[in-house]
Amino acid sequence: MTEREVDLVVIGTGPGGEALATGAAKAGLDVVAVEKHLVGGECPYYGCIPTKMMVRGSDVVAEVRRAAAVAGEATISPAWSAVARRINEEATTGWDDSIAWDRLLDAGATVRHGVARLTGVGRVAVDVAGELQTFTARRGVVLNPGTRPAIPPIDGLADTPYWTNRDAVRATELPGSVVIVGGGAIGCELAQVFARFGVRVTVVQHGLRLLAADEPEASALVAEAFAAEGIRVLTGVEPRRASYADGSFTLDLDTGEQLSADKLLVAAGRTPNLDDLGLETVGLDPATRVLETDERLRVQERLWAIGDVTGKGAFTHVSMYQSAVALRDVLGEEGAPARYHAVPHTTFTDPEVGGVGMTEQQARDAGLSVRTGLTRLEQSSRGFTHGPGGHGVIKVVEDADRGVLVGATAMGPAGGEILGFLAVAVHAEVPVDTLRTMIYAYPTFHRAIESALADLS
């Protein structure tokens, strides 16, 4: 066993943890960053970056297939090998974290590949390949342990070679058919990607609609797009049993239907990595799913938490935002506290779904006086000229008492980019009356926001 006194220990080097450790080290602190898997976290190796390469490939396939309606005949022979090569060579470098490791070292941090546990306030034990290293942190500890795929309690599932998002991203060949358990962002993105490359796809969703966290109008449009592309969607059903034999999966549903496929992909949410972190040694419940933090990301004295485990949105951009707030607190610097009234997100289906702030239902549940406005993109000048693939929705949610937007959805081509306009409006609480006096460029997709605002009245 070795012991060492340092200024700060960061447990977990997802994007937020890496950024905080880098900033603290550059500020002159003695920093130890601990990662049990790949430095950089889920996003660059199994999430945001490689999946967007998958989406990009599938979107190109779809656009070529739409060409006949707008530009003449075109054909494409989709090859998954091109996507797999990009992911391996350009996104993940063969799932090698040396570049991220070197970034931390260059910043002045110490990096350990190992499993870290709290052993008391400001104390961390790290198992590095069987060698136990202990650290006492003068400033404290930052927790950024992230999440892992949630595995639903389906009888027999554990005995099968099912896929999670990590397996799907590493696939060099695609199956002939796949059943996807889960109709959230991950399940929906991968369903459309695989279908466009010729895989027969069935999505099993226990809820009553896809993308349940988004507006119902967005869910309906995604369902329509999936139906048009031959993706079968089963909602309001529960898997009861899974089995695997002779290279094929079988999934029994509570409806009595039995599904068979070459692969079974589980995309049923995420589980926070808090269960073996030693939380009990600092007076916290080891069974908790969320670490409550204050506006400076403090859990308690000398302990901060950022990222998915704070329950403020399982998004890279939230973790990065929190890392900046927490870093200022670690360094004793002044700055704006954390606020979450305008958290944006994008699901990269086609049409793309961007959302910010509250949905209509969330605003009503919060007791606000709600007005909504909605317009269809295909009714706009840009949607009309775009042709196939130009459909979508702009929806705005107003707190009528204050006259400001508290939420919005931008769904359609580049919906996540259109969302930027609406995110500023929600974040800065720009009066709706001010938004109505703006000049909106013509003919653009974002001009439809003006129509949605007009619909408020």
Q: Into how many domains do the coordinates divide?
A: 3
Tally the helices: what do you get?
Answer: 14
What's the architecture of the largest domain in CATH terms? 3-Layer(bba) Sandwich
Question: From the helix content, strand content and strand pairing, which structural class follows?
Answer: alpha/beta
Q: What can be said about the biggest beta sheet?
A: 8 strands, mixed
The backbone outline, from C-alpha atoms, is: globular
The number of strands is 22
CA radius of gyration is 23 Å
| Poorly predicted sequence stretches spanning 5 or more consecutive residues | none
Q: What share of the residues does DSSP label as strand, in percent? A: 25-35%
Distance between the termini: 69 Å
CATH class term of the largest domain: Alpha Beta
Mean pLDDT: 96
Task: Explain the overall architecture.
The relative contact order is 0.12. Strands 1, 2, 3, 4, 5, 6, 16 and 17 form an eight-stranded mixed beta sheet that branches. The chain has a five-stranded antiparallel beta sheet with strand order 18-19-22-21-20. A four-stranded parallel beta sheet has the order 10-9-8-14, covered by helices on one side. The protein contains 14 helices and 22 strands. The chain is of the alpha/beta class and 457 residues long. The model has no long low-confidence stretch (mean pLDDT 96). The protein folds into three domains: 2-40 and 97-148 and 271-330, FAD/NAD(P)-binding domain; 157-269, 3-Layer(bba) Sandwich (FAD/NAD(P)-binding domain); 344-455, Enolase-like, domain 1 (2-Layer Sandwich), CATH 3.30.390. Helix 1 packs parallel to helix 5 and helix 3 crosses helix 7 (185-196). The protein has helices spanning 15-26, 42-46, 48-70, 80-91, 98-107, 165-170, 185-196, 216-228, 316-330, 360-365, 381-386, 415-428, 432-436, 448-455; strands at 2-11, 31-35, 110-113, 115-120, 123-128, 131-143, 147-149, 177-181, 200-205, 232-235, 239-245, 248-253, 258-261, 263-266, 270-272, 298-300, 303-305, 344-347, 352-357, 370-376, 393-399, 404-412. Helices cover 32% and strands 27% of the residues.
